[in-house]
Amino acid sequence: MSAETGKEPGHLSRRRLLGVAGATGAAGLVAGGAGGAVAAEAVRDQPAELASVGRGEVPFHGKHQAGISTPLQAAGHLAAFDLAGDADRRAAAALLRRWTRTAAALTAGKPAPARDTGVARDAGPSSLTVTFGFGRSFFGRTGLADRLPEALGPLPDFTADHLDKRRSDGDLWVQIGADDPLVAFDALRALQREAAETAAVRWQMSGFNRTPGATAHPMSMRNLMGQVDGTNNPKPAEKDFTAKVFVPENGSPAWMAGGSYAVVRRIRMLLDTWDHLSPERQDQVIGRRKADGAPLSGGTETTPVALDKFTKDGAIAIAGDAHVRVAAPESNSGATMLRRSFSYHDGYRDDGAPDAGLLFIAWQADPRHGFTPVQRKLDRGDGLSRFLRHEASGLFAVPGGCAPGDYVGQELLEG
After folding, report:
1. CA 20 to 30 Å from 164, out of 5, 39, 213, 256?
2. Is residue 1 part of a domain?
């Protein structure tokens, strides 16, 4: 039995088995019973196990939804849906049932229960995660205004925002991540099909990260500016991680226990301008060395940032407007969030500049004590903001996970 998968060696996912059956199906139709023998031989000739990337499986069911503290995947899709005009609470519940059933199957490496297209037929689970959330507008649309969390209040306006309302907010939100792009795309299409006439896509964004195994050893991700990103994220092993990221069991409202709040921002990077800065100037703007992610106050990437450190020349090591200083919990009364983002590239703008940047996703137990105070500080004095444009935004309540046989959001919709 494989320690990673809990499955016997030689196990074939249903996707791979369907691929074998598809390859031999025509012969089976012509040769009758001989087709079964051909298919059996083809199965025996398959490799004993999937490659390491395809073999990864993240359980769908559990206390928390997957895709929050799950390690970053190589490919991702974010999508918001708006309910149809005649879709009520009952219709929304039926949709979440369908979505949950589909997500549970796909994350286990099985075909979509309804109208599977075969796009991911040859792949394993590939660490697929599917995460569901509710936007503020969902509650009024479904007659659940009395269950709207206070923490889901509108985000404040920030002076640096250039938001496109058509690509912001939404009644329902879906986050998809996988280490294989076809597996991620297959999940996105399956959920869109399941929405049918209940909900329509409001906006959709696609992103990527470095593929696991692309570096000699595990490393923090790099964003499109080339900077190491996510070093100061809270770690699951830390004793206060759960309190920072997830709503407590006795939290309010009760249906959000074990859930989290996701702030989603599409942040375009002015890469042509950034790339013209010298490496030394880039380091000063961030407050870390681009080469290895170490803070300019000294040490390695994981060395705590020393905001009071001075250089031999008497200058402060990390500038007053350096990103790591302005964003640090010490500069924001301890405000913390788990950043779990994807890079994106959507071609080129009319001026020839790349339409590229970060699909920023921040997870926290309460955005009023996480994202909002930090972004207010960044909005006022972050040197990096000169090279960024916040072009879309959303805040979503992401309930806890569900047990087999239940569906995500059931306590909200049926409680």
Report:
1. 256
2. no
